[in-house]
């Protein structure tokens, strides 16, 4: 099957029992991206799982939500995966790891690799669920609850798949428990360099993923780590991939610098103090100055509506950082 830059080759699995169309994007003979859509409008081409497959064995990067575990299991069956050796979590937010406890009921021998700061919250997810409800509200309820992960499944030590090391890079910034993973010619970046989306124009949309509590210096250092690790295909948590990870890291650093600069100008130099007003004015300015973010208008309408919420959350993190760092009350 031929490929285009804007839409990779894909296999499509239709789950007729729920009427949900789930796309499995084939990146290479070994690597697949599973789109895990939700019923809520716009929540497609957003939450996903990466599958690196060798015969009937595989490792996964993230598992999505409890709501989509059955979709993921069906997709793995479709791909002929019988043994999930590792689950590499980029971080423990519920759109990436919320379904893990449920997923392990299907693959009880899978070894979970997670940042040290995330382990206790997987084993006892009560605080993670409470925090998710506080921040996401009805979206968290749509994602579904969180089942505990058995402590025996948490893996500590070097990670090796089919004789090749998986390099683990701690990349706090989007979250203090965020990791990136390098394997073969791929780097799985989670949300460290932002949220990506293909456009029908053979181009892409990109924005930062900087929810509260955002610390610019930590986030930028994490992106620098990705840049300095080498040049790979960058595999995003949301959504898709780009072949030049160094270029993407450079774009992400420039973008983050610009967003902080714009918010600082509005919040500190112009003296606006109301967060909603700062966010609204910042979005207007960024639409003019950021040619990657401005492509939000090229997204499908339902996806654009979804992004509207998350862009505000991203800016809320930056507003909080700028006020605390540069112009406290």
Automatic annotation (TrEMBL):
Classification via CDD domains: ST1585-like_MBL-fold (cd07726)
Domain of life per record: Archaea
Entry keyword annotation includes Amino-acid biosynthesis: no
The UniProt record lists the keyword Hydrolase: yes
Family matches, as InterPro entries: Metallo-B-lactamas, NDM-1-like, RibonucZ/Hydroxyglut_hydro, ST1585_MBL-fold
Molecular function terms, GO-annotated: hydrolase activity
Domain Metallo-beta-lactamase stretches: 46-238
Cited Gene3D superfamilies: Ribonuclease Z/Hydroxyacylglutathione hydrolase-like
One Pfam match: Lactamase_B
Keyword field: Hydrolase
Name of the protein in question: Zn-dependent hydrolase, including glyoxylase
């Amino acid at each position: 099957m031929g490929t285009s830059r804007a839409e990779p080759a894909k296999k499509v699995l239709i789950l007729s029992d729920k009427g949900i169309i789930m796309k499995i994007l084939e990146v290479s003979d070994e690597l697949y991206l599973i789109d895990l859509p939700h019923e809520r409008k716009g929540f497609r081409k957003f939450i996903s799982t990466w599958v690196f497959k060798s015969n009937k064995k595989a490792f996964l990067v993230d598992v999505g939500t409890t709501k989509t575990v059955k979709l993921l299991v069906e997709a793995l069956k479709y791909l002929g995966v019988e043994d999930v050796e590792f689950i590499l979590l980029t971080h423990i937010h519920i759109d990436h790891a919320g379904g893990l406890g449920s997923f392990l009921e299907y693959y009880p021998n899978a070894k979970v690799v997670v940042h040290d700061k995330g382990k206790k919250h997987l084993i006892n997810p009560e605080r993670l669920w409470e925090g998710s409800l506080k921040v996401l509200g009805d979206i968290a309820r749509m994602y579904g609850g969180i089942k505990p992960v058995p402590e025996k499944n948490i893996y500590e030590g070097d990670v090796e798949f089919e004789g090749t090391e998986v390099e683990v890079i701690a990349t706090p910034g989007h979250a203090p428990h965020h990791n990136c993973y390098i394997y073969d010619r791929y780097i799985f970046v989670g949300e460290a360099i932002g949220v990506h989306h293909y456009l029908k124009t053979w181009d892409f949309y990109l924005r930062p993923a900087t929810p509260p509590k955002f610390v610019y210096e930590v986030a930028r250092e994490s992106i620098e780590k990705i840049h300095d690790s080498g040049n790979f295909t960058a595999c995003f948590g949301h959504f898709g991939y780009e072949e030049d990870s160094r270029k993407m890291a450079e774009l992400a650093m420039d973008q983050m610098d610009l967003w902080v600069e714009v918010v600082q100008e509005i919040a500190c130099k112009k003296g606006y103090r109301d967060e909603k007003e700062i966010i609204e004015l910042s979005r207007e300015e960024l639409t003019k100055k950021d040619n990657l973010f401005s492509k939000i208008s090229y997204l499908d309408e339902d996806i654009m509506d979804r992004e509207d919420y998350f862009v505000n959350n991203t800016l809320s993190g930056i507003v909080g950082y700028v006020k605390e760092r540069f112009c406290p009350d």
